[in-house]
Every structure is written in C-alpha cells, then in structure tokens.
Design a protein that fits this description.
Layout lengths: L3 E5 L21 H14 L3 E4 L9 H8 L7 E7 L5 H14 L4 E6 L10 H19 L4 E4 L4 E4 L14 E4 L3 H10 L2 E4 L4 H17 L5 E10 L3 H11 L5 H9 L7 H12 L5 E3 L2 E2 L12 E4 L1 H13 L4 E5 L3 H11 L20
Helix pairs in contact: 1-11, 3-4, 4-5, 5-6
Length: about 350
C-alpha cells in the first residue's frame, strides 16, 4: 500500500530545541516556516501541515498563498478554523490557494469557535458538518440553496474554482462522539493522534461503522512526532534532552494556553502519559514526553531507522494511510527522517474519489 508522508511547518510558535524554552531563531516567522516547507519539498515529502491558531504564530492562509509559488511538488495541508470565516469567503480563499498551488491543496478542517465564543461540543460539530457540506458543494462547482441549523446560504460557486473543479480532500480528527459523527459525515481522511496500535485498530473499526451508516467510507491518518537517530540509545537520549530544561509548571502553562486543551483527544493523550513507564514510554517506541509541554499530538515515535520504519509499517498494517510527522527542531528532524526513514517507505499522494458530505 502506498502511504502519504507529510511534515509540519511550525506556524503556531511550536518549535524548540528544548521543549518549553522559546528560541528566538525558532519562533514562527516567514523565513523560518518557509525554510521548513521548502526543505520538506526538496526532500520529497508528499504534503506539509500548516497549522492555525488566532492567538499564536502567523496566519496560515496568507502563508500558504506566499509559499505556494515557491513549492515545486509538495502539497499543502491547510488547517481551516471553520468557525471563524463565512463559507463563501472561505471557499473563495481555498479555490484561490489551490489555483496558486496548481491543484495541490488539501484541507485540515478544525471545528473551531469564534474568538470569545463558547459553544458546546455537540452543536459546534454539527455546525462544522454544515460548513463541510457547503464547502464541498461550492468547491465541486455547485450552487447552494441551504437552510441549516447554523448556516443559511443561497449562492453560486466561486467563479474561479479549484484546478480540478473538485473540492480538496478534507482531513479531520476528534475523539468525542460528536466529533466522530462529524468526521463520519464529512471527512475524507480521519486523523488520529498518537496511541497504541491496539487503540488505533479499535478507533478505526468504530469509525468504519459510523461512516458506513451514512453510506460513506474513510481513509485514516496518524499525526505524531518522531525522533530518529542512528541507534536506539541515541534516539532515547535525544528524547530525554528535549525535556531536560522543562519543569511541570511551565509544561502545564503551555498545555493550557492551547485552544483545544479541554478536548477528548487531549484527555486521551493525558491518559497515555499517565499509563507510560518512568521514562514516558507507553510502548517501546512510543514516547509520551512531548505531551508534557504541548497540547494536541503528545507522543513521538522514537528509535533507530529500522525501528521507526517498523513502527510506521505496523501502523500501516492497522489501516493508516497518511502520516503527518514532526520533530524538534522541525527543520533538523525533517532532514534526519528524510535521510534515515523516508527512502524505505512506499509513499506518494493520497488519490481517491471522496464521498459526498452527509448533513442530518
């Protein structure tokens, strides 16, 4: 099976040599984040995630439009906080960026609130389903006349559509029941944060069942960090060094400032840390230490090149087809993974015909 291998550009001030200790040279900026994307493009990665947050870092849509003419082959996985923009504006932005990219845009749907808004999980995800439906219709070139619980919209599609005339693929993740229902209704690729392989298999079975009930199918992705060195001892030493200047209060403050700090997915990452051994390993090559200073994806695959490749192959056998990886510092680990592991993977772009989004 061909898998998609993506990297991560730290647009939200999430790049460190020592976790929790900001380095001026690693803060989000146009030059720094540009260099990460262009390195991933040069090394042959298939895609790169551009994260989004209104409180930290730099704007990812403006960044995507700026980097698109400079990137030769790589796709961009643009995170979209779908509660923050009206649908016609968002559809037009996505179509324009896809045009600049010559058809290489993919979209990470984030079920966000407006700044200052407080919306319970269940209605927020229902709103996200409506937005995904409308985006898919408009980006597929169809006019909409829609009356939903959250959006009322009658409008023609953007005059300038995507290169293919079809919507980019939607990547989406979340572990609450409402998030899973939203993903089953509208996602193309269901993203999971790091977990044991047994848990990945269980989540996939649940999501297959939910999607089938809506007449849809899903692909599966894995978002985690990676630490690869020539030997396992060196990789474990690099993991320990990453946390060597962090104290618990600092880590807690970093986690709590994230916009997703109270989500079901974040709670699961905390459970993994609590069940890990004294060095933070919940499985031999799955290290939960990253989550001490980061909300969201809080674990890393740690090992020598063969061990990291074997772990990815194990996850592939469990049904994962898209890997979104990162490491600290992001540019340095991008190079190490490209040299040590990427050549051993059969990888390329995910290509398939997405199912329609189901509302209601």
């Amino acid at each position: 099976m061909t898998v998609e291998i993506s990297w991560f550009s730290a647009l939200c001030d999430d790049d460190y040599e020592f976790l929790g200790h900001p380095d001026e040279a690693l803060l989000s900026s146009w030059p720094h984040c540009r260099n990460i994307v262009l390195a991933a493009d040069r090394y042959g990665y298939d895609n790169v995630l551009l994260p989004s947050g209104y409180a930290l870092g730099i704007d990812n849509t403006a960044f995507a439009a700026a980097i698109a003419p400079l990137a030769n082959h790589i796709r961009l996985l643009l995170a979209v906080r779908c509660g923050e923009l009206i649908v016609p504006q968002l559809a037009r932005q996505l179509a324009t960026v896809d045009q600049i990219l010559e058809g290489r845009l993919t979209v990470n749907i984030i079920s966000s609130e407006m700044p200052g808004e407080s919306l319970d999980s269940e209605p927020r995800y229902r709103r996200s389903t409506e937005i995904m439906y409308l985006l898919r219709e408009l980006l597929d070139g169809r006019a909409v006349d829609f009356r939903g619980d959250f959006v009322d919209l009658t409008i023609e599609p953007p005059r300038i559509g995507t290169v293919s005339g079809r919507s980019p693929l939607f990547y989406f993740g979340g572990l609450s029941p409402a998030a899973k229902d939203c993903a089953a209704a509208g996602a193309d690729v269901f993203l999971m944060w790091p977990d044991t392989t047994a848990a990945v298999t269980e989540v996939r079975a649940d999501m297959d069942e939910r999607a089938a009930a809506k007449g849809r199918t899903l692909r599966y992705g894995w978002r985690s960090h990676v630490i690869v060195r020539e030997s396992e001892d060196e990789a474990r030493a690099a993991a320990a060094r990453l946390l060597s200047k962090l104290d618990d209060d600092m880590g807690r403050a970093i986690r709590q400032r994230s916009l997703d700090s109270s989500s079901a997915g974040v709670a699961r990452q905390a459970e993994l840390r609590e069940s890990a051994d004294d060095e933070g390993y919940v499985e031999r090559h799955l290290w939960t230490g990253v989550g001490r200073a980061r909300s969201g994806a809080g674990a890393a695959i740690v090992g020598d090149p063969d061990q990291v490749l074997a772990k990815l192959t194990e996850l592939e056998a469990a049904g994962v087809e898209a890997f979104i990886l990162s490491g600290y510092p992001h540019l340095a680990e991008c190079d190490l993974f490209a040299r040590y592991v990427l050549p051993g993977l059969d990888h390329g772009r995910l290509e398939f015909e997405p199912d329609p989004v189901v509302v209601g």
